């Protein structure tokens, strides 16, 4: 189920949709165990559907309960990432933070950007919007996050 559709469901409909998706996943796992399942992508898709439904449900419950839900995406450029990777390699107490996997994943930068754009488009809600923060400058990024936090908090308290 697309997240946009899930957002429009009532609380009862959302719970029913979630229960249905969980039953479907159980059925798929049974088919897998009994070698009746031939299209394994169905399991992956059903898990994604459940995750989307749970996200909507959780954020809605938090907001309805009075919580202020904020989501931040801190974005850096490939050049900044390379600079930070090299700095970590040169700093003995930070070397453990960088792995060969990190270097390999740099080659997939475009795919990661597409995935982030998709995630933000699908999961930003009125109750829990995403805030995108340019983070090449770590200190400035922290200030931007704090400014957003204070604005949202003020808005909620004025309410």
Strand order within the widest beta sheet? 1-2
Number of helices: 7
CATH topology of the largest domain: Rossmann fold
Question: What is the annotated CATH architecture of the largest domain?
Answer: 3-Layer(aba) Sandwich
State the CATH class of the largest domain: Alpha Beta
Strand content: 5-15%
Q: List low-pLDDT spans.
A: none
Give the end-to-end Cα distance, rounded to a whole number of Å.
32 Å
The mean pLDDT is: 92
Explain this structure:
69% of the residues lie in helices and 6% in strands. It is mainly alpha-helical and 159 residues long. The protein has 2 domains: 1-66, Helix Hairpins; 68-159, P-loop containing nucleotide triphosphate hydrolases (Rossmann fold, 3-Layer(aba) Sandwich), CATH 3.40.50.300. The longest helix is centred in the first third of the chain and has 24 residues, at 41-64. The two termini are 32 Å apart.
Give a short synopsis of this structure:
This protein has 159 residues and is mainly alpha-helical. The protein is 69% helix and 6% strand.
